[in-house]
Input
Amino acid sequence: MVIELILMATKSNKAIKISQKHLLGIQDLSITDVNFILSEAKQFINLNRSKNKKLDTLRGKTQINLFFEPSTRTQSSFELAGKRLGADVMSMNIVNSAIKKGETLIDTAMTLNAMHPDLIVIRHQDSGACNLLSQKVNCTVINAGDGRREHPTQALLDALTIIEKKGKIQGLKIAICGDILHSRVARSNIYLLTMLGADVNIVAPTNLMPKDLEKFGINKFSDMKKGLYDCDIVMMLRLQNERMNSSFLASNREYYEYYGLTPDKLDIAKDDALIMHPGPMNRGIEIDTNLADDINKSVIQEQVELGVAVRMACLKIFCN
Output
């Protein structure tokens, strides 16, 4: 069903418009919006593998990347996406900015707004910061991760990776494992994968498991092997130590024993199960190094590659 909708959107000659001005979270999108974004992203996959990767789709547009938290994959991906579409891209150095001198997010928003950007991509440590920014500027805002709340483009690139590898999402059994409590990636994926018809298992220690997830129709497990049974996709998450205000774990070694992805645990999943991880990885804590690098099972590098295509699609759609 999902593939059919994507193909319909791709083949249609009619101009399709997204229902939102900003991309703040998966929960704000309709399934039509999601299918439109994914269909657009598919058009950029071959472009990104070609010798000539430059377009002029966003020529004359200004994109500001505003990252209050460290980022390698997401920030570089958005920067590359903007440049490949022909936008003028500015990535702000937060360390040397007025923000470090005590300037508020609202003051920063008003300053940037006075420069008339067309698009601001923001990552912030506080949940809801992206929503606040979107209310203070005239341009489009794209959420590159806010606190524990959402990371919509990560979920979209994960969905595209699954579709590229499995041909569908509907009916697949997908396990999301690890620090669910502090993970914005987990939340966005739960919203998106259930929307697209997947059967989602959440696997985590009880003290890293949110209490309000049942309403999304997921299955909760505190036993890794039970949670991975017969799964098509195993999505591992990083321990969000920077968001933990107290001790959640006895030790990294104990966590790896019970909740790290090892060959014996992966054997419980389907024979052709694929491994995913949004990065950065803590090898030997949440995932075995050999599994992370197994080109027959791991699609972690494909996630990085398709992340550029998805972000190009989001920039094109929301900035036009």
